[in-house]
Amino acid sequence: MLPARRFPPFALTLLLALLTACGTTGTNEGSQSGGRNLITESELAELPELDALQAIERLRPRWLRQPLGRSPVPVLNGTPQRSASMSVLRSIRVADVRQMRYMSASDATTRYGTGFDGGAIIIETHRGGD
């Protein structure tokens, strides 16, 4: 019988780190124009008749499918819309939006504080920055 071969602990740690790095992708990968975590104004220009929620459902439905049914919190021009939840997205016309970005739960919690278990959808409108 051959002796069992053991990997040194540092080798397992290195392997785990490499696998984690391979599984982590940048925020701007996945789509030609803006990436999987960004919806640009040029993408939205093709959907002028929709509201922000409909645009997300069509362009990045994954943003709305969070584990355990947790919804992302909309953040409109820098202000979290916790009480309005997704209804705020229905009230925003695509023509008014400069860009929308999905932020993970950990990033949103770091930036805005607790209550972002489903992440955040950052909406920048033309009115908010100009």
Q: Quote the beta fraction.
A: 15-25%
Proportion of helical residues: 25-40%
How would you characterize the largest beta sheet? 5 strands, mixed
* CATH homology superfamily name: TonB-dependent receptor, plug domain
CATH topology: Ferric Hydroxamate Uptake Protein, Chain A, domain 1
Total of domains = 1
First and last CA, distance: 75 Å
Taken from the alpha-carbon principal axes, the silhouette is: elongated
**How many beta strands in the DSSP annotation?**
5
- Helix and strand sequence: HEHHEEHEHEH
List keywords for this structure.
130 residues; alpha+beta; Ferric Hydroxamate Uptake Protein, Chain A, domain 1; five-stranded mixed β-sheet; 6 helices; 5 strands; 33% helix; 17% strand; elongated
Account of the 3D structure:
The chain is an alpha+beta fold and 130 residues long. It has one domain: TonB-dependent receptor, plug domain (Ferric Hydroxamate Uptake Protein, Chain A, domain 1, Beta Complex), CATH 2.170.130. 33% of the residues lie in helices and 17% in strands. The chain contains six helices and five strands; from the N terminus they run H-E-H-H-E-E-H-E-H-E-H. A five-stranded mixed β-sheet has the order 1-4-5-2-3. A hairpin with a 2-residue loop joins strand 2 (73-76) and strand 3. The longest helix has 15 residues, at 9-23. It starts with 8 loop residues before the first helix and ends with a helix. 23% of the residues are buried. The model is unreliable at 22-33 (pLDDT under 50).
